[in-house]
Amino acid sequence: MSAWVERRGERFRVRSRIAGRIVTVGTYPTEGEASRIRDAYERRQRVSEVRRGLTLAVFGESFLAARQARGVRGRGPEASRWSTYIVGDPIGQLVLRSLRRRDVLEWRDRLLRRGLAAQTVRNALNLLRSALADALDAEIVAENAALTVRVPRSATTTTVEELSGVLRPLEQQALLAAVPERFRAMVALALLTGLRWSELAHLRWEDVRDDVIVVRLSRGGLATKAGRPRLQPMLEATRAVLGGMPRVGELVLGGDRASGWRPRGWTSWVRAAGITRRVRWHDLRHTCATSLLAGWWGRRWSLEEVRGYLGHRSVTTTERYARLLDDTIALAVSETAAPHMLPVVESAGDETSSISAAPPARVELATNGLGNRCSIH
User: Fold this and answer.
1) Of 13, 283, 305, 335, most Cβ neighbours within 10 A?
2) Per-residue pLDDT band at 355 (split at 50, 70, 90)
3) What are phi and psi of 138, to 5 degrees?
């Protein structure tokens, strides 16, 4: 079964003939990437070659391409999950036909020891299970080594620990003060919107409206986690940050942000802010949700309001932040004593920066449902 690459405008698609019909296996931004997927797709068809030593990581390329051809939604998050948790782990280098249940168990335990959320590990396990089921159907493996592997029940009780990186109001201020000026707008924007990195990195100026941000399917083959565009109402503080950023290029963050770049100085910024516990970039999203529910930025938001603002599919996801507030006394103390002032961005004064800053300002957040007001001093 052969496959080939066709150019379509500025993109390249991999085509193949399946059951007498020509179908599109996938569409990619470069010819090199399309050729790599084509080769992996063809290797998958040559079972005799596959049995001689195809690794799990390489098989995954054709597995994901085939799922896209079948119209399975969410390929962007799946590709990212496969790359991060399988290709980036020793299990990815194992020969597919040699994979055993003990290998999957050891891989699962490594992910849990990294401190990943139980649901994150479960999602990765489900993806691996689907890939091995596909390999079993193609008679590449004799058994699905992940079929009976489960995430231990005890791993699902770490809800509060997973949110230990939430920043209290004074820590939010300290972090923004510690971030270099050229990156401060980026951090403030992530904090105020709660956007995931993939959503923020692909955000375009054309999707920044007067009162909402349109979070679309991203342009690099990746999709938002929910798999569809959504509208996020803008806080006044968010509008102030965006208003101080120059419109250089199509992307709000400028440069090559959409290609996967992340702030490499993040850990040092956290340390400079005097924060000694582990805080990840994604914790800015958790901090946004917690701040709205706790009323740190003004009126307390309801679970349903925060669910809509952050784009959670279910209010059940949002409820974990409420449990954090209920279970952690320190958060309640911070809520009572916290100032409602959040510094935004100072002028960068750096001509080489792709992100400049608003004039020195402090924004007092006062929320009112999904509409908001703020005063700038």
Assistant:
1) 283
2) very low
3) -85, 5
